Amino acid sequence: MQTCSLCNATASDETKACPHCGADLGTHSVRAQMLKRFRENPRVVAIRVTVAGDACSACAGTMGTFAKDEVPPLPHPGCSHEGGCRCSYEPVLSEVFP
User: Fold this and answer.
1) Measured between alpha carbons, how far is 70 from 89 in angstroms, rounded to an integer?
2) Which domain holds residue 78?
3) If 0-12 CB within 10 Å is exposed, 13-18 middle and 19+ buried, where does residue 25 land?
4) Residues 63, 8, 65, CA angle at the centre, nearest 5°?
5) In terms of CB atoms within 10 Å, which end of the chain has fewer, N or C?
6) Considering its fold, how many domains does the chain have in total?
7) Cα 86 from chain centre
8) What are 60-65's contacts with CB under 8 Å, separation 24+?
9) Is residue 70 part of a domain?
C-alpha cells in the first residue's frame, strides 16, 4: 500500500495517482518524499532498503544498502505479497549528532 503525502489517502501499489486528491504518487507518496529528503540531506551517505520478515522473493532481493543515486524505487514493481510492498528506506548517516 502507498500513502499520499498530501492527503494521507491510501492506494494499492499499482496506483499511479492518489484516488482522493489526484497527486502523482511517484513523487508525492510518503516513501517518495522520504527518499527525496534522504537524498538531499548531506549527513546521509547511503540509503538502506529494509524488507518485512515475510517479504516476497522480489522484495527480499532488494534488501541492502545503496548509494544515494542507485536506490531502487518503492513500492517494488515485482512485489507479489498479498498486502503489497512493505519495503522501506532508512538513512545511513555519516554522523548521528551535529
Assistant:
1) 13
2) 2-93
3) buried
4) 15
5) C
6) 1
7) 9
8) 62/87, 63/87, 65/92
9) yes
> Given the DSSP bridges, would you call strands 2-3 and 44-50 parallel, antiparallel or unpaired?
unpaired
Interatomic CA distance for residues 81 and 93, integer angstroms: 30
- Joined grid coordinates for residue 53: 520478515
The C-alpha cell 516476497 sits at 56
pLDDT in tens, 47-96: 999 999 999 999 999 999 999 999 999 999 899 999 899 999 999 999 87
Per the structure block, which three cell numbers stand in for 79?
512485489
Cell 542507485 found at: 70
Q: How far apart are CA 53 and CA 37, in angstroms?
A: 26
Query: Does 98 fall in a domain?
Result: no
